[in-house]
Design a protein that fits this description.
The complex is a heterodimer of chains A (about 110) and B (about 120). By secondary structure, chain A is mostly beta strands. In chain A, about 0% of the residues lie in helices and about 50% in strands. Chain A has strands at about 5, 10-15, 20-25, 35-40, 45-50, 55, 60-65, 70-75, 85-90, 95-100, 100-105. In chain A, strands 2, 4, 5, 6, 9, 10 and 11 form a seven-stranded mixed β-sheet that branches. A four-stranded antiparallel β-sheet of chain A has the order 1-3-8-7, with no helix packed on it. In chain A, a hairpin with a 2-residue loop joins strand 7 and strand 8. Chain A starts with a strand and ends with a strand. Chain B has about 120 residues and is an all-beta fold. In chain B, strands 2-10-9-4-5-6 form a six-stranded mixed β-sheet, with no helix packed on it. The N and C termini of chain B lie far apart (about 40 Å). The model of chain B has no long low-confidence stretch (mean pLDDT about 95). The chains are: A mainly beta (about 110), B mainly beta (about 120).
Chain lengths: ~110, ~120
């Protein structure tokens, strides 16, 4: 199975900060990577698919990049509603696997 | 509007069985794969199973293989998950989600809670 490792696991930041979250795959997954946001008590929502394609309706401050084994999710200017947990997910092959999550907290 | 309504969760003893259902609407059900993803309390997301559009292919991680069975009834727009030999570490909210051949998840149900405890 392909293992997905996210870092950091927790991140403290302030409104307006630029944030980068990293996701590493244990083997190449080409660009078959998605990013999700999950606010406390809510269902996950899709942000990015195919590593860098922005889901319809997602603010432009979110962007994704990478291919192969290393990927990043960037939030250009953190907003109050962005304090949440973020997950990456590979869909290169079954078993599908998620990263362990990155919790973005208020500094 | 895509709607996914999971049901069937509850409290079950270790070793017991439970059948989850997911009623889908707002999209052409028999053209999309369907998956179950779970989330243990305070933990991350964990893929449980996927079934292709026709029901002819199914996929499981080793953690549930041989214990869980995914199925679908395209005439009823409903997805199922039969869970047997349940263990405490199966305790989670179970979500259903459709996908294309690219298995990422644009839409999620609200989930149903399964608690395995004596």
């Amino acid at each position: 199975d392909i293992q997905m490792t996210q870092s950091p696991s927790t991140l403290s930041a302030s409104v307006g900060d630029r944030l980068t979250i990293t996701c590493r795959a244990s083997q190449s997954i080409s660009s078959w990577l998605a990013w999700y946001q999950q606010r406390p008590g809510k269902v996950p929502t899709l942000l990015i698919y195919k590593a860098s394609s922005l889901e319809t309706g997602v603010p432009l401050r979110f962007s994704g990049s990478g291919s192969g084994t290393e990927f990043t999710l960037t939030i250009s200017s953190l907003q109050p509603e962005d304090f949440a947990t973020y997950y990456c997910q590979q869909y290169n092959s079954y078993s599908l696997t998620f990263g362990g999550g990155t919790k973005v907290e208020i500094k | 509007e895509v709607q996914l309504l999971e049901s069937g969760g509850g409290l079950v003893q270790p070793g017991g069985s439970l059948r989850l259902s997911c009623a889908a609407s707002g999209f052409i059900f028999d053209t999309l794969a369907m998956s179950w993803v779970r989330q243990a309390p305070g933990k991350g997301l964990d893929w449980v199973s996927t079934i292709n559009f026709s029901g002819g292919s199914t996929y499981y991680p080793d953690s549930v293989k041989g214990r869980f069975t995914i199925s679908r009834d395209n005439s009823k727009n409903t997805l199922y998950l039969q869970m047997n030999s349940l263990r405490a570490d199966d305790t989670a909210v179970y979500y259903c989600a459709p996908s294309t051949t690219s298995a990422y998840f644009q839409h999620w149900g609200r989930g149903t809670l399964v608690t395995v405890s004596s």
